[in-house]
Design brief:
Blueprint lengths: L8 E5 L2 H4 L23 H6 L1 H5 L14 H15 L3 E5 L2 H4 L10 H16 L3 E7 L5 H7 L6 H17 L5 E5 L9 H5 L8 H29 L4 E7 L3 E3 L4 H23 L4 H9 L8 H6 L6 E5 L4 E3 L3 H4 L3 E3 L2 E3 L16 H15 L3 E5 L17 H20 L3 E7 L19 E3 L11 E3 L1 H11 L10
Parallel strand pairs: 1-2, 1-12, 2-3, 3-4, 4-5, 5-7, 6-8, 7-11, 11-12
Antiparallel strand pairs: 9-10, 13-14
Length: 480
């Protein structure tokens, strides 16, 4: 028995800026990640001070070659088709199409690459699910406008959308306007192509929320544009999700969790409902933020998305008690208290499959729009054996728990179109620049220093996920 509908879209996800490499091939402009070093040379500091990073010369830039998907996509997609993928999520690199973001004409060589990529997906029986802006605003737009802080990026983004939607609408049905749109509050460089490091805390907050408004308007206008170009297109939004639990039943902790959850839901409330929620307006007032928005902006926001997608890796825990809250540890980009009921990964993430079920129910109840789980996975250190095997039982255990709980959410009544686990082939980590933080079903022989053969090998999870897809979500017990 399975809880998944027979037309459920099983697959995996990557992002152009984390896998393509070929950073100056075929007239591509610089992406945001192309100035970021690896972790050893201070990647996080560069993320927080990107203008300074752009003036430095580092010994190694992970994105410049990455896993070279730009040249290996055919064999990589064939391996994914071997697993039975019905959908493949990737992104278009904006600076491959408009190298500087505001060029007079799009770059035909970049457009031709995605013609081939999406057609290959189709030939292999996979629906492309394409993110329009996945942490990939052209670097030149940061240098010229400070990215999405400037309203002019709305029109530049829409010009880019107009080109790619007209070009690919017959090949691509499912689109996402922005990846993890709420990340603009946490990593404004990747999320919005901005440097706010020289601003006061209040000025930075004002800038981030103003930029968020620009993205929300751009997203709504892109949805309208897509529907006018092709009524079959399905446009979605995307949230970096993960339910925030109260540390205790104390009302103050419950309120703190409510407020933490709203920080992310604010974006999707606008994209899925078409207007700013009252709590967002109250937040702006309480923090003396003055967001410039026109009547035309508010009218544009009424064009809502067709579905809601999100990433989910772990839940989080908050406390209203300052002494307890000070004990927070890093869990991906988000900080969280340690939950004593959950196991912890090598990178400090606390794995929580039930949290995925809770998140899905809450998102469905909130919006009543179809869901798409577009990122979920476990980043861990994998060991390649002498006979080119990877025995990743820990990844299978994580995925089994999450897929089972996703099935339970569907049984609860949640409508969900599909699931694309993150990093279906090993790629460069966005936050740390590492290759050692691996997610894939396919091992790529490349290390944190860019050394290795770049050969591909099937992990144990490759065969396990192939069976899950073949059985439409029925997960077998993990073998000893």
């Amino acid at each position: 028995m399975t809880n998944f509908p027979k037309d459920f879209l099983w697959g995996g996800a990557v992002a152009a800026n984390q896998c393509e490499g070929a950073y100056q091939v075929d007239s591509k402009g610089l992406s945001l990640v192309d100035i970021l070093p690896d972790a050893k040379q201070g990647r996080w500091d560069a993320l927080m001070h990107p203008k300074a990073a752009a003036q430095k010369t580092y010994d190694f830039y992970p994105s410049h070659e990455s896993i070279d998907f730009y040249h290996t996509y055919e064999q990589d997609l064939e391996m994914m088709a071997e697993m039975g993928f019905k959908v493949f999520r990737t992104s278009i690199s904006w600076p491959r199409i408009f190298p500087n973001g505001d060029d007079a004409q799009p770059n035909e060589a970049g457009l031709a690459f995605y013609d081939k990529l999406f057609q290959k997906c189709r030939d292999l029986g996979m629906e492309p699910l394409v993110t329009i802006n996945h942490f990939d605003t052209p670097l030149a737009l940061m240098e010229k406008y400070n990215g999405w802080a400037d309203r002019r990026l709305i029109d530049l983004y829409l010009r880019y959308c107009d080109v790619i939607l007209h070009r690919y609408h017959k090949l691509v049905k499912y689109w996402l306007t922005f990846n993890e749109i709420n990340m603009i509050l946490h990593i404004p460089f990747l999320g919005g192509g901005m440097d706010v490091s020289d601003l006061s805390a209040k000025e930075a907050l004002q800038t981030k929320y103003q930029a968020a408004h620009h993205q929300l308007v751009a997203s709504a206008k892109a949805v309208k544009m897509a529907h006018e170009i092709d009524s079959d297109i399905k446009m979605g939004c995307m949230l970096a999700a993960g339910e925030v639990y109260p540390n205790t039943p104390a009302p103050a902790d419950v309120l703190a969790a409510l407020q933490a959850n709203r920080e992310g839901y604010f974006f999707i409330d606008v994209q899925a409902r078409g207007y700013y929620p009252n709590y967002a307006k109250a937040f702006f007032k309480a923090n003396d933020l003055h967001i410039e928005m026109t009547d035309a902006d508010l009218a544009a926001l009424k064009e809502t998305v067709d579905f809601v997608s999100f990433s989910y890796y772990a839940s989080r825990l908050v406390s209203a008690d300052p002494e307890v809250a000070a004990e927070k540890g890093e869990a991906n980009v988000f900080n969280s208290l340690k939950n004593p009921y959950l196991p912890t990964s090598s990178w400090g993430w606390q794995t929580d499959g039930v949290g995925l079920r809770i998140t899905m129910n809450n998102v469905w109840d909130r919006y009543q729009k179809p869901l798409f789980v577009v990122e979920n996975g476990l980043g861990e250190k994998d060991e390649l054996t002498a006979d080119h095997k990877v025995h990743d039982a820990y990844r299978i255990a994580y995925l089994k728990e999450n897929i089972d709980q996703m099935g339970q959410a569907i049984a609860d009544g949640v409508v969900c179109w599909g699931y694309t686990s993150w990093g279906c082939i090993d790629l460069v980590s966005a936050s740390t620049g590492e290759m050692a933080k691996r997610y894939g079903y396919i091992y790529v022989d490349r290390d944190n220093n860019g050394q290795g053969t770049n050969a591909r090998y099937r992990k144990d999870s490759f065969y396990w996920y192939k069976d899950v897809i073949a059985n439409n979500g029925v997960t077998e017990p993990i073998k000893a």
